[in-house]
Amino acid sequence: MDLNIHASFLPHDDPDAALAFYRDTLGFEVRNDVGYEGMRWITVGPVGQPGTNIVLHPPAADPGITEDEGRTIAEMMAKGTYASIVLATTDVDGTFDRLQAGDAEVVQEPVDQPYGVRDCAFRDPAGNMIRIQQLKP
């Protein structure tokens, strides 16, 4: 089989803040920005990796989500426990410094984890956990 990860989905509750974080702070390129019925889906991805995408979406856009589920999702997003993604870099300390200087919300400074990786963590404007791991040489 020839499979690739094409897109991952992260919720946002403020499209302009999400766009600023992923485009301006992380340096991702905007690949699509679509509005529909007052909602907005923004597709971003790392420069030079056109086949890897993150779709920033309204959390309750699925018609199968009940009002109670929508409230639960909003509560979990506010706590930062609803969604996450792991990114990788060749220089986690340098990346941390650049993101911290850009006012990203720091969750964890770079640290060597007992499970064998060096990583750091931030939250995006919607509360999604963004972990960044050091690539091994």
UniProtKB/TrEMBL annotation:
Q: Where is the VOC domain?
A: 4-135
**Is Ion transport one of the keywords?**
no
Question: What keywords tag this UniProt record?
Answer: Dioxygenase, Lyase, Oxidoreductase
Q: What is the top-level taxon of the source organism?
A: Bacteria
One annotated GO molecular function is: dioxygenase activity
Q: Name one Pfam family in it.
A: Glyoxalase
Q: Which SUPFAM superfamilies match?
A: Glyoxalase/Bleomycin resistance protein/Dihydroxybiphenyl dioxygenase
Q: Which Gene3D superfamilies match?
A: 2,3-Dihydroxybiphenyl 1,2-Dioxygenase, domain 1
UniProt keyword Lyase present: yes
Kindly provide the name given to this protein in its UniProt entry.
Answer: Catechol 2,3-dioxygenase-like lactoylglutathione lyase family enzyme
Organism in which the protein naturally occurs:
Streptomyces violarus
